[in-house]
Specification:
CATH class: Mainly Alpha
Order of helices and strands: HHHHHHHEHHHEHHH
Helix content: over 70%
Mean pLDDT: 90
Number of strands: 2
Length: about 325
């Protein structure tokens, strides 16, 4: 196995990513056999991708936060809050669709600023901040919409934003998601901001002693996360229609599972955008496959929880061996 890992192309792609791709292929084969070929349809793939888009943006965002050694459990509720607030402005106040989409991103951005400021400048533990942010997001969405669900317009009603997800049978959302993933990978791996964010996860005190303004870069990670969460809300309403207050928690674990499965360390200092993308696709495929087999979503929650535990344990073992 060690010889295989040392093969140049394997080292370049990453052994973990190759394993994930193999797992995804095996899962697809399993679901095809389990459904007697019903999973082979292109509509199934499109359905799985619809789920992957918004979950993918959540995962991209939280990758930056986890890279610093932090965590954010508010991403799901904040996504719903952004979708509800912007959707309510659209349907009740008559703001243009473009303005509503901007409001969605702005809500995510503001939550990112709020979480990041508390963590970086007030030194509040990320876990506490994310729990507070989650409750604030739920409460704000319920108060703003008067606890009512919000339905975004369909294509026939002028909902052109749905073309961001799909045009006919062309998964436009996948192209956009990959473009954003490439941009995130460049930021994390090729820029000063990304290097400092990863360094914070490795040894924050050493970075501080070297004269770096760690508070600024730590807050930036949360701002990036919040902005991507606001974008995730756009893709959620582009794929689905109705948004209800009080939801979103389940997507936290799935997004984090995609990150950790893809090679991002919960201890910080190590992150892989490419791995996160593959991890998200596996989670989306799992969700669609579970439903295709006739099981409820509860089974996916169980499997996702197991995936998180196994992935974190594997990361702990790998770090012990390295040390």
């Amino acid at each position: 196995m060690e010889k295989f890992k040392q093969i140049p192309i394997v080292r370049k792609i990453g052994f973990n990513r190759i394993v994930l791709v193999v797992v995804m292929i095996l899962m697809y084969i399993f679901f095809c056999v389990g459904t007697k070929g019903n999973f082979l349809g292109y509509e199934r793939i499109l359905s799985a991708l619809n789920y992957a888009y918004f979950l993918g943006f959540l995962a991209l965002g939280v990758t930056f936060v986890i890279a610093t050694g932090g965590i954010d459990f508010s991403i799901g509720p904040v996504m719903f809050c952004a979708a509800l607030v912007s959707g309510y402005c659209l349907t009740s106040f008559g703001v243009p669709i473009v303005a509503a989409l901007i409001i969605s991103v702005l809500v995510g951005f503001l939550f990112g600023c709020f979480n990041g400021y508390l963590v970086a400048y007030w030194n509040v533990p990320p876990f506490i901040v994310s729990m507070a942010g989650m409750n604030i997001a739920k409460g704000l969405a319920s108060v703003f919409t008067k606890t009512q669900s919000v339905s975004w317009p369909q294509l026939a009603q002028g909902g052109w934003f749905r073309y961001l997800v799909k045009v006919g049978n062309i998964p436009v959302g996948f192209i956009i998601f990959i473009v954003f993933s490439i941009i995130c990978a460049i930021i994390l791996n090729q820029t000063k901001a990304g290097r400092y964010i990863l360094s914070l996860g490795s040894n924050k005190e050493a970075v501080r002693l070297s004269g770096v303004d760690i508070k600024k870069w730590e807050m930036l990670a949360y701002i990036i996360c919040g902005t991507l969460v606001g974008i995730a809300a756009i893709f959620f309403v582009g794929a689905y229609t109705t948004v209800q207050p009080g939801y979103g928690d389940q997507y936290n674990n799935e997004a984090i599972a995609g990150c950790v499965m893809g090679g991002t360390s919960m201890a910080g200092g190590l992150a892989s955008i490419g791995g996160t993308v593959i991890g998200v696709l596996i989670i989306a495929l799992l969700q669609e496959g579970i439903l295709a087999l006739g099981f409820t979503k509860d089974y996916q929650l169980i499997i996702t929880g197991i995936i998180v535990v196994v992935a974190v344990y594997a990361d702990v073992v790998a770090r012990r061996r390295k040390n």
